[in-house]
Amino acid sequence: MTAHLLLSLALRSAAVGYVLVLIFLPLAALAHQSFAAGWDRFIQDLSAPQAAAALWLTVETAAIATAINALFGTLSALVLVRYEFPGRWLLNALVDLPFAIPTLVAGLMIAAIYGPTSLLGTWLQQGGMAVLYNQPGIILAMVFVTMPFTIRSLQPVLMGLERDQEEAAFTLGASPWLTFWKVTVPSILPGLLTGVFLTFVRALGEFGSIVIVAGNIPMKTQVASVYVYGEIESYNPQAATSVSVLILLISFLVLLLLERLTRRPGERLPRLFQWTRQKDPRDSESVVPTAAI
Hints:
Blueprint: H1 2-34, H2 39-47, H3 49-82, H4 88-94, H5 97-100, H6 103-114, H7 119-126, H8 135-159, H9 164-171, H10 176-204, H11 208-214, H12 224-233, H13 237-262, E1 274-277, E2 287-290
Antiparallel strand pairs: 1-2
Helix pairs in contact: 1-13, 2-13, 3-8, 3-10, 3-12, 6-8, 6-11, 8-10, 8-11, 9-10, 10-13, 12-13
């Protein structure tokens, strides 16, 4: 029992220490630096016109990109899981491409397609729709870098989903569209929520591709991450950390909401140890600590 307890404590201490060193301590240091000049300075930094515009543009474009990926990501996951067609393996491999390439390269790819010298970019500009250095370019970059989240979150759920209820709905006369909304969507909702929330959080912090496709035009195409970079270069770390803390706070609240929505009904947060009476080879009445899962 003592060896098991020591092993459990060592493993949990290593896990907690890993998270503290890599995540909690940097976040605490950033928050401390942000509020070092006081709460009034923090509010002043966030309410500055350029900072407020960058924050609003970031949240707005991230929400639009999330909605686009929620729709097309769900359809893509359904196609990849339930249909066989030539080139399916290649399409499934391409889904992970945004994870594999640097985001700066992603921005260059978008600029090459929609730039003013490209065929498609010239045609769009003639129609009055400029992609680069405008909001459509920001949204397109966010959609590209976050595309895998919804698809990869839904694929395992769809693979393990029994189709008995869908077939029963078809038998009762429900249309494919009604069956999808009333039967399929509720069954895959946890995976869908995971993909949607992770997409939104990732889009909030996108930097590399947006620098290429949107530039750094204050009050127009300057997102929060680019604003933070500009303030650092302008030797104004106080404003940079204030905006960073707000973005981190939004992301943290979104992840907390995701954890709450995807938690099973009645499930409680795990405790450090859950003491249960188990059968021990040496003593059937021994109390053995069991790590809570």
